[in-house]
Amino acid sequence: MADKLKILVTGGAGYLGSTLVPMLLADGNQVTVLDNFMFGQASLAAVCADEKFQMVRGDAREKDIVAPLAKDADLIIPLAALVGAPMCKNDPLGATSINRDAVDMLCGLLSKDQKVVMPVSNSGYGVGEPGKFCTEETPLRPVSLYGITKVEAEEIVLEKAGGISLRLATVFGMSPRMRLDLLVNDFVYRAVNDRAIVLFESHFKRNYIHVRDVARAFMHVIANYGAMKGEIFNVGLSDANLSKWELCEKIAEHVPGFQYMEAPIGEDPDKRDYIVSNEKIEATGYMPAHSLDLGIEELMKGYQMIRNNLYGNV
Known about the structure:
This protein has helices at 17-26, 63-71, 85-90, 92-108, 145-160, 183-193, 211-223, 225-228, 244-252, 279-282, 292-302; strands at 6-10, 30-35, 53-57, 75-78, 115-121, 133-134, 164-168, 170-172, 196-199, 205-210, 232-235, 241-243, 259-262, 275-276.
């Protein structure tokens, strides 16, 4: 990146932010993070010594806090959100006010010269057609409040700010602010600790992506903002459109003795079932660097350190 930027990251101490912020700083940018630290995390401790880093404790819904921070920013990355279908179901008011309304308020504060890169979930695709890839033009059919709020936030970012939207596959991998409730992270944790898992609706498919590759996608679109502005991009591993059963088969290659079985009754509360094409962002020169196999091996190392359930959103 030629020009160094002043960047505001809301929710920057979370699972993705705590991986992305060090990359932004290492690239020479000035980074301000706004976070309410709702999980009691100290995930950005390693970058506090960087003079280009500023930390603000506060709520991304508070206009009096956000407005002066946004005013000075060249680029805004709104990560603050209640993430995941269960968390949003448990707090629908919070999900709507943070995931959608705070983004709407933020975009209303910006000038036409300010840049916005927004992550949303590709859960907006809901239930896809069998054997047919979801592209950025595929009609959105979110099946959860989480998916609905992220779809609405994407519309706001594109219409109000002319920004860039990254529709993320299900993210996995170790992060300074770890999450165990994400599907791959959860399944590997169960494989390592319980050696067994019972699957509901194991044929449901989805796409996956490493958290570091998500951060790399942000770096890529920031560096190529002019050419990619106003566009939507799926971000995932093109060789990892897998069902939950196929994911377990992959994990079993790394965890000897891991047993998995289909439950005869019961439903998956997250009804997502689709396969995704990532050709659009790949055509711009971006390619993931971390395979699912590498991620599983990484998680197995990480779970030698993590022995409790403090690291989830539910």
